[in-house]
Amino acid sequence: MANNRYDLAVIGSGPGGYEAAIRASQLKMRVCVIERDRPGGVCLNWGCIPSKALLNSAETMEIIGAAAREHGIQTGEVRFDFKRIIQRSREAAEKLSRGVRFLLRKNNIELIEASAAFDGPQRLTLTRSDGNAPSAPAVEAERILIATGSRERLFAGMRIGDGMLTSREALVYDQLPESVAVIGAGAVGLEFGYFYQAFGARVTIIELEKQMLPGVCDAEVAEELRRAFVKRKVDVLLGHGYKSAARHGDRWSVALDNNSQGKTVEAEMVLVAVGRTPNSDSLGLEKIGVELERGGFIRIDEYFRTTRDGIYAIGDVIRPPLLAHKASAEGIAAVEMMAGVREPGFDLMNIPGCVYCQPEVATIGMTEAAAKAAGIEVKVGKFPFRANGKAVAVNHVEGFVKLVAGRKYGEVIGCQIIGHGATDMISEVALGKTLEATTLEFGRTVHPHPTISEAIMEAALAADGEAINF
Amino acid sequence: MSIEITMPKLSDTMEEGKILRWLKHPGDKVSRGEPLAEVETDKADMIMEAFDDGVMQEIVLAEGESAPVGATIARLAALGEEVKPSASGAAPRPEPEARTGAPEPVPRPSKPVAVRKRPVAARGAGQAEAPGNGSAPAELAPQPRQELPASESPEPQSNGQAPPAAQPHQESAHREPARASEEVSAMRPAAPRPVAVSHEADLAKLKASPLARRAAEEAGIDLSQVHGTGPEGRITKRDIDSFLREQQLFRQRRLVTPREGSPGTWEELSKMRRTIAQRMAASKREIPHFYVTMEIDMEESVRLKKSLEATEIFDESITYNDIVIKACSLALGRYPRMNASFENDGIRIHPSINIGMAVAVEDGLIVPVIKECQQLTLPEIARAAHRLVAKAAQGGFTADELSGATFSISNMGMLGIEHFSAVIVPPQAAILAVSAIKERPVVRNGQLAVGTTMMLTVSCDHRIVDGVVAGRFLQEMKRFLENPASLLV
């Protein structure tokens, strides 16, 4: 029995849970991680990683197709094996999931494969869905960290099956549909829309809001992205709400809301990408007095403590944005606070958000509109990729960098980048934001030439009216 | 002829004062009305101002030391007189090379600087051992380098115990890793940079973000005075903001400075004092007061305030006073009889909750009113309260802002008051006296423990309410303050 007593039990082995566990182990805690599915959570198995594998296939297709002609490279007929594309993505996920297993073992963290439910504030009972007995009936721990993440949300009346899918099913669906109706123009909808169009599917994206990436993205960036999708022959229906979907034979007919005057979209597949919902049910939280907030998120304080002593929560299950790197950072922060080596608080304004279709979109902090609405006086610097030497040379001229800085001191309030490599470029801005760098430091930091990253330096200079190359 | 500066009587009850910090040093020009020193009295930390023009000649009472009212604490040379450094007392300012021809090494803050108690006290302790020790003069000189250990060290206690001479070493060891990153920001063209190499190096060595440096420069803050709360003591924008806020508070606290009275004189009542005299005497004469006190566990409210600070959810920073006002307006909503007045042999129960806040000003107090509290969220109350307090400092109230209160609050928490009761403002039914939030022994599950509590005393008009209502009202306040999430709704 003594064996089943831990300093910290982590529920969930996603990027939030497993990284928190490793940090806890580094801080000399005896740790176990409880996982009901595969190690690595949604990110590694059903999200970030496998979807990036698919997007890489799509981009490769785009390069071989349209881009090759631009380069004067001739190809014969380009064919592809869709089953292999899906399989490669699964292999990537599998490899990384094994990697998580290895990391846990290397750090002396016990991985318990079972579902957990609270039996008391320091006790979890374990069950397995496959009918086998778990390695132990229960686990006891001084502290418990809930890192159970989130799952795909559906609208009322939707049912998965018969060609209606969420991202989770799409990741293993190895038939290329002839046409797809994507509900929702958030990151997931856009990435799958981009993926299917690259292999020749007729894609229609349906979004209730008036812009792509609503709520997170600058309107100018969203418009640039819409144009890029339209150029790729994707039908983008903004300001159209989903009303219902009906199956006619082997096709779906998606009815749009009243404003759309009875408009319908016909497609072989309906991909539902309307957000995610926290996995805060089925843990028995109500039994032990862990309170939830609106939307089912677990309520926490600035130490990631729930309303019950000794129980902590991080990641998708506590608050948006629902992002893997936010979960990891919160998990590490929570554990460091438990160990008393970190001060309380967590800056949610310094979390990059990324979309990995082409062109990529990366954002951090506030948009120009949000800053103005908050009464912050800003100056804005913009620099287009087409004025960047490297972007022209490598034929990725779509997109621009938009930097929003405080008018008085030039501190970076936000940054939005659309274009090739945007998701890697945003880290520079994130570091600058952490260090409270101003446009002056960005502008004076020597960037290597030729690189697309020079666009950030130029955007910073542009905020002060001093851009050199534009 | 030198002019003696003596310890002023900064409050009615003050018998002695402690110098927290000299703001002028030997050799500095002083003009009448300029801040000379920060003095800790029995009531508050206050700024002592110069009564004469001149040049600071000698500091007699070192920082951290106390002296009775009237004792000589420094000497001022009349203008034009040559300043001769005195050998006695605590240290003349060692003239740095920068003074000969070079610009002033570091812009010294032109405004009174907020007092951070622990570090300053710790420094004082270190200096007490200093006289005779060769390092003492350096310790007292107002160079940024000497200020650093006090404001930067995360553990002032250990500094206080260490021999003063050891401090520079500790400091440089502490700072070493910062240098590389700081050199980048030191390149920025700033306001005239100090020419003296040592100071420039010292400032550059300070760990501070580029944004913090810019904001400090703009506000004329000497970065070496700022306590960094970032990783390893790095100064961030937030530290500059809270430094400025402290400064603001300090300036507001100066309002509390009671008018000085000279023994053996007779003063005519000012208009304000006359009003206070009439109304308070009438209140005590006509209103049958009774008093009910309750101890409130403030741990949750403290936590709420901290988490609001940490998350910066509201633009307005929330003070305990705002939290109490919000809780009070909720409690009044449930016990409307406390929000009433005695009129024409009847009781008028008011439809709105308008809370008057007693604010001390130089010659008495005024009670600006936050109207319609029942409709205001916590940040809205905070905004209104802070605006009124700022107005009290500057003047310019409209008649409307000073009338129509249906209930009053008097808060003496900032003065560390244990417990007090207030006089009802007629025709209101009650007034709430708010004391300091302190660590006090509490009993939890039969065990003695350290709790964070606050005493609330409500003074009530017995013609309007009875003890039960007053007690329930306080119980209600207790419930809100001990479960303060309710205050955010």
3D structure, described in words:
- The complex is a heterodimer of chains A (470) and B (489).
- Chain A is 33% helix and 24% strand.
- By secondary structure, chain A is α/β, with parallel strands linked by helices.
- Chain A has three domains: 2-45 and 87-150 and 277-349, FAD/NAD(P)-binding domain; 164-274, 3-Layer(bba) Sandwich (FAD/NAD(P)-binding domain), CATH 3.50.50.60; 359-463, Enolase-like, domain 1, CATH 3.30.390.30.
- In chain A, strands 1, 2, 3, 4, 5, 6 and 17 form a seven-stranded mixed β-sheet that branches. A five-stranded parallel β-sheet of chain A has the order 8-15-9-10-11. A five-stranded antiparallel β-sheet of chain A has the order 18-19-22-21-20, with helices on both faces.
- In chain A, strand 9, helix 6 (187-198) and strand 10 (202-207) form a beta-alpha-beta unit.
- Chain A starts with a strand and ends in a 7-residue tail after the last helix.
- The model of chain A has no long low-confidence stretch (mean pLDDT 94).
- Chain B is an alpha+beta fold.
- Chain B folds into three domains: 1-93, RNA polymerase II/Efflux pump adaptor protein, barrel-sandwich hybrid domain (OB fold (Dihydrolipoamide Acetyltransferase, E2P), Beta Barrel), CATH 2.40.50.100; 107-130 and 139-189 and 196-258, no CATH class; 271-488, Chloramphenicol Acetyltransferase (2-Layer Sandwich), CATH 3.30.559.10.
- Chain B has helices at 117-128, 136-140, 144-152, 156-161, 167-175, 179-186, 197-205, 210-219, 237-254, 271-286, 299-311, 320-334, 378-394, 467-482; strands spanning 2-6, 16-22, 29-30, 35-40, 45-49, 54-59, 66-68, 72-77, 289-297, 340-343, 346-349, 355-357, 359-361, 364-366, 369-370, 407-411, 430-434, 438-444, 447-461.
- The longest helix of chain B has 18 residues, at 237-254.
- The radius of gyration of chain B is 25 Å and the shape is globular.
